[in-house]
Amino acid sequence: MTTADGYRIDPLTGDVAHIVADRQTRPNLPSAGCPFCPGGVEAPDPYDVRWFANRWPALPDDRCEVVLYASDHDASFASLGIEGARRVVDLWAERTQVLGARPDVSYVLVFENRGAEVGATIAHPHGQIYAFDAVPPRALTELDHGRDNAEVGLGADAPGDRLVCQAGTWRAWVPQAASWPYELLLAPERRVADLPALDEAGRDDLAAVLIDALGRLDRLFDGPMPYMLWFHQRPTDDGEWPTAWLHAHVAPIFRSRGTQRFVAAGELGSGIFFNPLDPLVAAATLRDA
Question: I want to staple 167 with a disulfide (CB 3.0 to 4.6 A). Which of 1, 51, 209, 279 is the partner?
Fold first, then answer.
């Protein structure tokens, strides 16, 4: 199936793709200076945190946004401190609520690509938000699977011996069937549906556990860990979604110092991942980091 906005479903696999041909010509690197630093093209005024519509959107109708975590070009999420990280969490929640209230938005995906190894073209600390007009397949799979397994996968007993760190009600642990050597899952002990539903304490705890967990990844090999991070949360399509449980996935791509873990044909072709590191060993290593 093909639509005018480039949304396509493969007739063989059922996989979904958005064909966004005009992004092929987007600049790979800024031509002069950092556009995210104060005074830059995307941040003309001083700021603590900031959002703006992506100039090169993957989705139409201003449904792609960029979130700047701090004005300091050399900062990382782990260096923001609780107060700085909390400002980011609050902005994520605000934009989720605003975008989710639109009639053409059914799902808000908050995410970050950190490092040139995962395609981040600007080093300034930032993430993105995509507002989808339908619930994406990966999120929908979790929601459907969670009808019987959300408590097992995210509840009080989920981390077991794979717990890495905890801040109040939020915990970070290595998943039982991790696809990436130092993969992490972050979730509150009890079900919270989405970012806007977090209370004050929950937002502080999320900020703290993000700083702790992401800082451990950087300390692991004494340098910035490239990673992909994304939040799954309740759809905004007015459905009930009783199994929705806010959580974050973190996929760090180094398996050892300077060595990237590649996903290759045997994994893409089979849909089965072959992780070279035991999750229990990964968790113990991160606890020590």
Answer: 209
pLDDT band at 200; cut points 50, 70, 90: very high
Burial of 277 (0-12, 13-18, 19+ CB in 10 A): middle
Q: Which of 126, 232, 247, 249 is catalytic?
A: 126
User: Within 10 Å of residue 103's Cβ, how many Cβ atoms?
Assistant: 9
Instruction: Determine whether 249 is an active site residue.
Output: no
Domains of the chain with bracketed CATH: 35-288 (3.30.428.10)
Looking at residue 154, its amino acid is: L
Structure tokens of 14? 């059922």
Q: Which uninterrupted H or E stretch holds 206?
A: helix 200-220
- pTM across the whole model: 0.94
